[in-house]
TrEMBL record:
TM ranges: 23-40, 46-65, 77-98
Highest taxon of source: Bacteria
Claim: Protein transport is one of the keywords in the record: no
PANTHER family attached to this UniProt entry: INNER MEMBRANE PROTEIN YHAH-RELATED (PTHR34980:SF2), INNER MEMBRANE PROTEIN-RELATED-RELATED (PTHR34980)
Species the sequence originates in: Paenibacillus medicaginis
Name of the molecule in the record: DUF805 domain-containing protein
Keywords of the record: Membrane, Transmembrane, Transmembrane helix
Keyword flag Membrane: yes
Length: 122
């Protein structure tokens, strides 16, 4: 949960790098929240209002952590535009997101694996 909160706190931070763990923990918690909201709105009969509001609220943090994740693999955040290509773009981005960090510092900053990370508690 700390990874999720740290991404939300850095919601406009498009500079720097994000570890795989940061990106995928945010994506996992995000998917869980969307699932819960979907069940709630279908039980209450609200249509898609809850998931739409939530999706708009986390759109900017999701783009920011995606750009930072791409920076960690040595790519520009502009690669996120691949999502506009149906199916193929999503597959390419998933491949980029699962790749390991580039060793050492790069043009986007120091390697986050060697820096401080949020204290995870389960």
């Amino acid at each position: 949960m700390n990874w999720y909160v740290s991404v939300l706190k850095n919601y406009v931070g498009f500079q720097g790098r994000a570890r795989r763990e940061e990106y995928w923990m945010f994506a996992l918690v995000n998917a869980g929240i969307i699932l819960i909201l979907s069940v709630l709105q279908s039980l209450i009969g609200l249509g898609q209002i809850l998931t739409t509001i939530y999706g708009l609220a986390v759109m900017l943090p999701h783009l920011a952590v995606g750009a930072r994740r791409l920076h960690d693999t040595g790519r520009s955040g502009w690669w996120l535009l691949l999502i506009l290509i149906p199916l193929v773009g999503s597959i390419i981005l998933i491949v980029f997101f699962v790749q390991d960090s580039r060793f050492g510092d790069n043009q986007y900053g120091p390697n986050p694996k060697h820096g401080a990370s949020p204290n995870l508690k389960f």
